[in-house]
Write a structure and sequence with these properties.
Two copies of one chain form a homodimer. Chain A is of the alpha/beta class. Helix content of chain A is 45%, strand content 14%. The first copy, chain A, has two domains: 101 residues, 2-Layer Sandwich (Nucleotidyltransferase, domain 5), CATH 3.30.420.40; 154 residues, Nucleotidyltransferase, domain 5 (2-Layer Sandwich). In chain A, the strands form three sheets. In chain A, strands 7-6-5-8-9 form a five-stranded mixed β-sheet, with helices on both faces. In chain A, strands 1-4 form a two-stranded parallel ribbon. A two-stranded antiparallel ribbon of chain A has the order 2-3. At the A-B interface, β6, α7 and α10 of A face β6, α7 and α10 of B.
């Protein structure tokens, strides 16, 4: 669990976690060349500063130099920060399901819905490093389908695990999928809505970005591919422009639950070596 | 009017139009260094081949080397092809409202709704050169709001001039705006729906692509900025992620009705000189 009492506690917990991992692997801190750190955005991956986050108490409206602070706490390797979904895309693009592909989108359907865009062999960053938040493309006009981002009608508001669970009134989205499979009418409506949102997102991604591959990770995608990848594929085949539809495949994450961790390690390795320009 | 009886007639009409323009300008064909040609996609800008188009009779499901054919017909300068919205973005990015900006989106709201994306100082092309079709991001679930692209719920299906006019049953969208201004309830609903679609698109663009500027051209945007740019700006301020919302401005096209023509000329000039790598 991420500590909820401010950035100092988060840094201390991160350092403790790193030390524990090193102990388990019987590796000394001085033998570590670089550390990767993934966080929800917005952040500045070049300076290692978390700009603000809506998800962790104490980070709201306060820029925080988390990479430098963690590096100081570890008293060892340099720390390289990037957004969790960007780290995931680096992982999939380097050794995973998008290896060697120059135009791909990484999408996570999990507690939230997020993503990262690689186009022409480069990570799309945008003007202030927040590009890729595909889960917050509005795909419906329902103002009552509120999103935690303060908007409504976002893909995340329909299709994320948290939103599905909240809408059904249970603790976990797996219950909603199980209820729908058992014929519960209200669960079926919610799951259908989630599928429609993901279908629209898939069509929009294909038409707007023309990727060669869409890699879909996250716990919901992993456990419910028939309700995530399948409707995305069907919608692309039926509704997207034909040329980009013929060029794209929708595939599951190869690195699965470890995708952001593996991506962080790869990013740290490459950045410490002065490489990895494609994703910077 | 574009001839509707096949590609040969289109090439002949293009050549006649070019000769007529040269005559009017008292310029000889041999003094022309390069010609730019913009067309609706999908197409291959490198080879000058139009892959297929849904909009011009005779181009359906037939790849056509339009740039080479027109060059042969002109018997003079090389011809450089690109998508109309890409040419527009080249125009705005070179001498227009996005001059010097590395992250911007060009959006046209006209007969149709289209766009082009520049990110990190480069035109986003995608795997098969169709990226940028932002008008066909689905923003609503209404299956009865059909789009000419074969899908439904696209921004274009709600907000394009053609779709507005068809939905209201008149020849031109200007009538729908006039009726709405005069209090016609049905027109007000249609215009409100168009505004909502453009608002959702604006929020989605800001969250997904994090541009520094969104340049909005096209006849509807030019004549009805209060119904196009204004709702986009308002939605970004109220609903988009705060960091990218603070970084973006929504501005009208500087080159207006001539944007694609000017962009085509600039693209032809730069490509003939072996320059213009940012947009290739």
């Amino acid at each position: 669990m991420t500590p909820q009492n401010g950035p100092d506690s988060v840094v201390a917990a991160l350092a403790a976690s790193a030390r524990s991992a090193l102990d388990a692997a019987r590796v000394a801190m001085r033998d570590v060349a670089a550390a990767g750190l993934s966080a929800p955005g917005p952040l500045d991956h070049e300076t290692g500063v978390v700009l603000t986050t809506q998800n962790i108490e104490g980070f709201v409206d306060a820029d925080f130099p988390i990479a430098a602070r963690l590096a100081g706490e570890l008293d060892g390797p340099p720390v390289f920060l990037d957004r969790d979904t960007v780290m995931a895309a680096i992982g999939e693009g380097t050794i995973g399901a998008a290896q060697g592909i120059r135009d791909f989108v990484y999408l996570t359907v999990s507690t939230g819905v997020g993503g990262a865009i690689v186009s022409g062999g480069r990570m799309i960053r945008g003007a202030t490093n927040t590009a890729g938040e595909l889960g917050h493309f509005p795909v419906g006009f329902d103002t009552n389908v509120r999103c935690r981002c303060r908007s409504y009608g976002c893909v995340e508001a329909y299709a994320s695990g948290r939103n599905l669970a909240e809408a059904f009134g249970v603790a976990d989205a797996s219950i909603v999928y199980a209820k729908a499979a058992a014929g519960d009418a209200r669960a079926i409506v919610l799951i259908g809505r989630a599928e429609a949102a993901l279908a629209s997102l898939a069509v929009g991604i294909v038409n707007a970005l023309n990727p060669e591959r869409i890699v879909v990770g996250g716990s919901i995608a992993e456990h419910e591919p028939a309700h995530v990848l399948a409707p995305m594929r069907q919608a692309i085949a039926e509704r997207a422009f034909k040329v980009p539809a013929a060029a794209v495949s929708v595939v599951p994450s190869a690195l699965r639950g470890d995708v952001s961790i593996i991506g962080s390690a790869l990013a740290a390795r490459d950045r410490a070596n002065g490489e990895g320009r494609w994703f910077l």
